[in-house]
Design a protein that fits this description.
By secondary structure, the chain is α/β, with parallel strands linked by helices. The chain has eleven helices and eight strands. The chain is 35% helix and 16% strand. Strand 3, helix 4 and strand 4 form a beta-alpha-beta unit.
Length: 326
């Protein structure tokens, strides 16, 4: 595939002007992950407006697996029995944090009159699987347990994640189904990182910006604590390996057609449909990994944002699908 000729022109221009577009994540290795984190932490920041919702941090009670993550709660605090977005950030399992302000999460809290709980899970390679997933599960159980304090209905929790966070969201939804401690109402997966085997056609796309094959192998090597692609990788670590997808909640999946995750995400959507799971799939032409966050003004990014908002509207407030303008 000729990436240059297929790339959306607005995305191409945005990447050329963005520091992230110039960063080669695949040039790092396990020893230099701290350097990568430093680079990401020092990316140019914009001045943020005052918060539009209450924001507070809570430490989850330690569970039997030793998970005791911190969660950041965005709460419009408009009553009780409201829906909840359980958010899992991306970062290739290597970097990122929930303990920084996220304007999109603030907007969701006000737009959908919901609480947003963002989990700050432990990162690999220092904390490989299952530590990040157990942190997410502990935080999900904490959210359901504290539903009254959060003003939410524990039966209306939608798990949402992007990239590695999308992989964790898919793994968490499988785990929640099987442990039967918390019922996940919906899952919303943006370009989820779900297959360590890297055998699809899209996983071999050469020259795709932002997150390429080398970066993907690095992320999986860190998360699994060993070389990816082995026969015994757990399905909760790599949800694309799961053979039983029955009884999972309604699902939204979005991915760009120049994303290395494209084919694994499409296949997962098809298998969910075959298992009887209501599933909505969007593949965005000319779009790369993380496109709607890195270049939010591009027309394809705005279309993605509208699709995502509409999916959240259906998941969080199924009686009304009206979505205020972003």
């Amino acid at each position: 595939m000729d990436v240059a000729s297929t790339l959306d022109p607005e995305i191409a221009a945005g990447l050329a002007a963005s520091p992230v577009g110039k960063l080669d994540f695949g040039s790092y290795d396990l020893a230099t992950v701290p350097d990568l984190r430093a680079v990401m932490a020092n990316m140019p920041a914009v001045e943020l407006p005052p918060p539009t919702v209450g924001i507070r941090d809570e430490v989850v009670d330690e569970n039997e697996q030793g998970a005791a993550p911190t969660v950041r709660v965005y709460n419009a605090e408009r009553g009780s029995g409201r829906p909840c977005v359980f958010w899992i950030h991306g970062g290739g399992y290597l970097f990122g944090s929930a303990l920084t302000r996220d304007l999109r999460l603030e907007r969701w809290a006000t737009t959908f009159d919901c609480a947003v709980v963002a989990v700050d899970y432990r990162l690999a390679p220092e904390n490989p699987y299952p530590a990040p997933l157990e942190d997410c599960h502990a935080a999900l159980c904490w959210t359901a347990k504290h539903a009254e304090d959060l003003g939410i209905d524990p039966a209306r929790i939608t798990v949402v994640g992007a990239s590695a966070g999308g992989g964790l969201a898919a793994g968490l939804t499988l785990l929640a189904r099987d442990r039967a401690e918390v019922a996940v109402a919906h899952q919303v997966l943006m370009y989820p990182m779900i297959d360590d085997r890297n055998v699809t056609a899209s996983s071999h796309i050469a020259g795709t910006p932002v997150w390429n094959r080398a970066a993907n192998v690095l992320g999986w090597r860190a998360y699994l604590g060993r070389e990816p692609g082995g026969d015994d990788v757990p399905v909760y670590a790599a949800p694309a390996r799961a053979t039983d997808l029955a009884n999972l909640p309604p699902t939204f999946i979005g991915v760009g057609n120049l994303d290395v995750f494209r084919d694994e995400d499409i296949e997962y959507a098809l298998r969910l449909l075959a298992a009887g799971v209501p599933t909505e799939l969007h593949v965005y032409p000319g779009a790369v990994h993380g496109f709607e966050v890195i270049i939010p003004t591009a027309a394809v990014s705005q279309r993605c944002q509208r699709d995502l908002d509409a999916a959240l509207a259906r998941a969080l407030n199924p009686v009304s699908e009206a979505v205020p303008a972003s």
